[in-house]
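JOB MANIFEST
job_type = single_chain_structure
chain_count = 1
residues = 84
[input]
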Amino acid sequence: MVNGGFYKGNRTGSMGRHTKGGGYMIEWRKVRTYVVPANLADFQLTPFVRGRPTMGRGDYAGDPMGPLSGERYLNRWKEENGVD
């Protein structure tokens, strides 16, 4: 536990200040903004996820643990990523 169990953050800095009445005042000059590339369609870097993820149902017939099976997870990992 840290300081009574409260996590203080990871050096991200504040985005405002506390008021006398117990509220929090956002200081907009401190708020982070992110610039998106103008030609996003031709941008070379890709995100870690697909643009349109698909939700599929798994086939877990014969596996008593179903989707929670660690063995099934490791086998799929080896199929997709190779053996370390």
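[summary]
The chain has a mean pLDDT of 79.
The helical segments are 70-81.
exit_status = 0
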